Known about the structure:
- By secondary structure, the protein is mostly beta strands.
- About 5% of the residues lie in helices and about 55% in strands.
- The strands form 7 sheets. The protein has a 22-stranded antiparallel beta barrel.
Amino acid sequence: MDFRLKLLALSIALILPTQPIYAYEMDDEDFEGDLEGFYGDEEFVSIATGTKKAIHKAPSVATVITAAEIEAMGADTIYEVLETVTGIHIYPSNLDRMKPNFSIRGLHTAENPQTLVLVNGIRTTYEYTGSRWQQFNLGVNIIERIEVIRGPGSAVYGADAFSGVINIITKGESGKKSSDFGIKFGSFETKSGWFNYSESSEKLNYSFNVQWYETAGDDSRIVDTDAMHSLGLDFLSNAPGPLDTRYDSFDFHTQLSYENLYLHGWYLKSEGGAGAGAAQALSLYDIETVESLTLAVGYKLSNSEELKMDIKGYYQTHDDDTYFVIFPPGMALPRAFDAQGVPSAFTVFTDGVIGRPIAHETYLGVNWVSTYSGIQDHLFRTELGYRKSEAKPEELKNFGPGVLDGTEDFRDGSLVNVRGTPHIYMFDQERELYFLSFQDEWHLADDWELTTGIRYDDYSDFGSTVNPRVALVWQTKHNLTTKFLYGEAFRAPSFQELYAINNPVVIGNPNLEPEKIRTYEVVWDYRPGFDWQLIGNFYMYSSEDLITYVPQQDGTNVAQNTAKQDGTGAELEIRWKYSEKIDLKFGYAWQNAEDAENNQEIADAPGQMIDFSLNWKLTDDLNMYFDTRWIIDRNRLSTDSRLKIKDYNWTNVSLKYQVTPNFDTQLTIRNLADSDAFEPSDGQILGDYPLEERGVWFAMTYQY
């Protein structure tokens, strides 16, 4: 920690110049009381504090991605959009059907519960894994904006706002009047269509947004080995073979507001393949079907200019039905052992070892938020809330206790439902949460603002936790803002980590504590001219009670609070509006994340990331968006003897042509150079996960 404190002090010294630096002559008094004018049409964010604030004043490291930027890049998925944020890397999970996960500042795990994802301010947390819903995705063409903060957010958002928070806001939430529809098709048998309609009047606003998306996935993503090779049963394996990355989704949103009353409905259904398979054994038959519903109603009350209140209730359901061929047809599993523990009899599964876990989760919540500005130079925000989560699992399978009696030499693919028996993977579970948060945004002086906040969360299953934050924002010069940030956050143990039973690999532990993190950050936002923006930050964090699965003598792995992780890093973003037609962005992230117990670097996390984008209006009708990124310096576990993970470069380009004022076409090429790019596997697939080959897509959009 001594080295980190020295580095922090050096960073502070570097960003506090003894003499102001100007790109041109200008007196400070020209900007007194008018800094918003200097920052022009800068984006505002609500995610940092829960109240609207200009990005340069937000007490966090915040990023906003607008609908115009999403459209310009021609993205297919929400993950392609988020990959453009400096400091965020998207990688496939080893355990969770290759679900795209977020690596932020070296904090990530297979289930990825450390990043909180909101849609229109409402959580999308799947309590069984603690992460966002399974097969989660949103139609990118129905998104109005995405707000992202890197760093802790539990003082405002509670659990799981550990490494970052992402809030996805759909079109219609802003009340803007607009309408459009479009189609898209291209590589990997991709097809998509969308429709947006928003109507606005003085009292009444309503909107409908729908997008359908389908892809067969890239069947050139071939892996040569899988778990069957590790077991010496390569003659049963489906490898070499492609990763199963097919995916279909239907995404529908509707909003209605009348004066102070508002309603929101969201229905999401998706279906996809299992990537490398449930046990890293390639399967030809796996499929996961997910269906989610959100209904929310709220009322905004304003007794005066100083006091405003918002009361909202919501109800959500999430159903996950997965069919796994865990091991292929012909697999033999031991059913009896001799005195030395050596298998003496086997059962052969003629149709494969098959599991079909089904999850039914419901969530009910209510939030009351008030803001009060009646005391000079203060803005107080208070939030009081309640959330109840229920899980009612089912499990159908053709193996294990409750299905086999121990005498079978052969077993076919017929499944038995073990719900209501002691042999299910988890019993019904219920969790209640009560929380209270308080925040004060205090305008200390003309150039200083202090934000302090604290949140108390009380869970029915593992107890309570308190998480504070302190942020000092200093308008160092008219064109330089400096921020000093401190925050604590926690990650709630998932139902799987607490209550999983009858699992041959992982077992839950009801005595778990929440994961905890403390983060220190220094941020500076420097604008040497109206067309330049330089945002840099240095951070260091210390996390403890991280949950890992510890091997036991009986061969199982039990969840324990055993790990600690420390990290330091720096991120730099440079934005330059070269002309009215050319916008440039450069980003660089350096991060060093280590196991605090043995000082070994965290596996799979990039040590460096570089990104560059160019948004160029070539003519009045033709626009080009070009982006490229480098993923560098990823390490393996110390026990993994494979060669170092290869660095790679990934480049995309998109050309949009405005045929008429209402009609445009777009050509997008991803992986332009057809790079051989890989993301790390856990070793059962020796060659890592290959990413997509070059792909081409064509889209048409009509606005009216």
